[in-house]
Amino acid sequence: MRAPGPGGRRGPRRGRGSRGGRDSGGRARGAGARGRDRAPAGPGRAGGAARRRAGPGRRGAGRGRGRGRGEPPAPRRRSLAPTRSLGRAAQRPPPLRAALAGAGPPPPSARAAARGRRRGARGQSVRRSGGGPGRGGGSRGGGRCPGGRRRSMWRTRWDAGILKAEALALLPCGLGMAFSQSHVMASRRHQHGRLIIEVDEYSSNPTQAFTFYNINQGRFQPPHVQMVDPVPHDAPKPPGYTRFVCVSDTHSRTDPIQMPYGDVLIHAGDFTELGLPSEVKKFNEWLGSLPYEYKIVIAGNHELTFDQEFMADLIKQDFYYFPSVSKLKPENYENVQSLLTNCIYLQDSEVTVRGFRIYGSPWQPWFYGWGFNLPRGQALLEKWNLIPEGVDILITHGPPLGFLDWVPKKMQRVGCVELLNTVQRRVQPRLHVFGHIHEGYGVMADGTTTYVNASVCTVNYQPVNPPIVIDLPTPRNS
Question: Are 303 and 333 in contact (CB under 8 A)?
C-alpha cells in the first residue's frame, strides 16, 4: 500500500503483513499495508491516526519510517485546532464545563451555537485531509480566512469574552441574571474602591424599616444579634487589652456617678443641659478630676452652643424657644469648644489613641428642633459618608436602627437607618458607642461590632445607670 504524497501519488511502502481488504474510502489495500495504516479518505469517517501520518513529503507510518534513502525528514506540522479523533472533550474547555455541570441544560440558543461550533470543527478537520476548491487545500494547520491568515479554533475558543458569554448562557435564567446584576451593582456601589451607601427606601419610617428587615431578613434576631453583658467594674483587665469606660447623657449630673477603673474614657454627648458656657466649664472640671489616660468627648443635641448654624438661626427668631441660650452674645459661645481643655473633642473628626482609630460625630435624626438635628435620608447620609473606613471605634450621639433605640412610651424605633447601613456594610468598627435614647441603655453585638448605649440618665433624667466597661485587645502597632 502506498501513502499519498504531496501530489496525490503513491510511493513504495515498507510493511510487515500481507493483509488485504479495502480502506474506508473503498480503495483496495496492498499486501504490505498494516490494518492501522490506512490512507486518508475524503469527507468520510477518517481516522485520526491516518490524518496524523498523512502529509506532504511523508511516506509510511511512524516517525520517519518509510523514508527514501538520502531523503531529509519532512517537517512535522501540527495544528492546535481540535479534530474529530480527539473527541468532544477537546472541543470545549474542561474546567468551564466541570464548573457548570450542575447548572442545568443550556438555553436553546446556547445549544445551537455550541452545535454550530462543533460542526465547524468537524468541517475543518475533514478539509485538512481532503482538499479541493474552497476547502483548505489539504493543509493540516487549519482553514484559512479570505485574507490568507490561518485561523485556529482553539485560540478563538479560549477567548476570555467567549468563555464569559458561555458561562452566562449556561447558567439558569435566575443565576445568570444575578451574576450580571451583581457586577452592575458592584460597579455602581463602588467608587474609587469605596462602597457607596444609598438612602434606604424606609429611611423616613424607622419602625417600618425595623419590621421589614426583621421579618424578611431576620436582621435583628439571634443569631445575627444578641445582648451582651458588660464587663464588671471590679474584673481584672486581661493583659494586652485596653479598657474603655463609656458614658453618655450625663446632663450636668456627674457628681453621683461612680467611675470605674480604665484606660480611656468615652463620652457620647449630652454632657450639659443646654450647652451654656458655665455648664461646659463645670463638665471640664469634672473631666480634670478623672484619672484616665485619655478622655474623648463628642457633643449631643443638648450642646446647643456647639452647633454654630443652630445658634445663628436661633438668634434670628422672634420668639425665644431657649431663652437662656438665645440671650447669649456670639462672643460668648463662638469658641465654646475651647473650654474643653481636659479632653479630646471630636466633631466629624478622628484621633488615634493606643493604636485605635476613633471617630466622633454629633449628628442625629431630627428631634424637636434641638442641636445637631438633620432630616432623615440624604442629609444624614452625607454626614455618615464622612466616616473613614478602617475606624476601630465609632462614637455617635444617636443610635443606629435596631440597636438599643426602642422608645416604649411611643412604641417606636428611632434609630437611623443610614447609620446602620454605614456601620454594618462599610465601616464595620469593633465598637460603636452612642446614647441619646435613655431607655435603650445596654450592650448588643452582631458578631462584628459591639454596640453600647451608655446613657447614664434614665428617661426621668436620673443618673442611675452605671458606666459601661469594654475591654478590647490593643493593636500590635500601638
Answer: no
DSSP 3-state of 282: helix
Kindly report the pTM of this predicted structure: 0.62
> In angstroms, rounded to a whole number, what is the distance separating the alpha carbons of residues 378 and 96?
44
Q: Which CATH architecture has domain 200-473?
A: 4-Layer Sandwich (3.60)
DSSP-H helix ranges across 404-443 = 417-421
Provide Rg for the chain, Cα atoms.
Answer: 40
E-only strand ranges, 315-363 = 344-345, 349-353, 356-361
- Give the tens place of pLDDT for each residue, 250-304: 999 999 999 999 999 999 999 999 999 999 999 999 999 999 999 999 999 999 9
Q: Residue 284 to residues 11, 279, 290, 338, 342: CA-CA distances in angstroms?
A: 109, 9, 10, 10, 6
**Cβ atoms within 10 A of the Cβ of 230, count?**
18
User: How far is it, in rounded angstroms, from Cα 309 to Cα 475?
Assistant: 38
Q: Please give the C-alpha separations between residue 426 and each of 93, 203, 213, in angstroms, as whole numbers.
A: 38, 18, 18
Angle at the Cα of 197 (from 191 to 199), degrees rounded to 5?
A: 130
**CA 291, CA 261: separation in Å to the nearest integer?**
8
Task: Write out the H or E segment, with its range, that includes residue 395.
Answer: strand 393-396
Spell out the domain ranges in the chain.
1-35, 84-137+144-170, 200-473
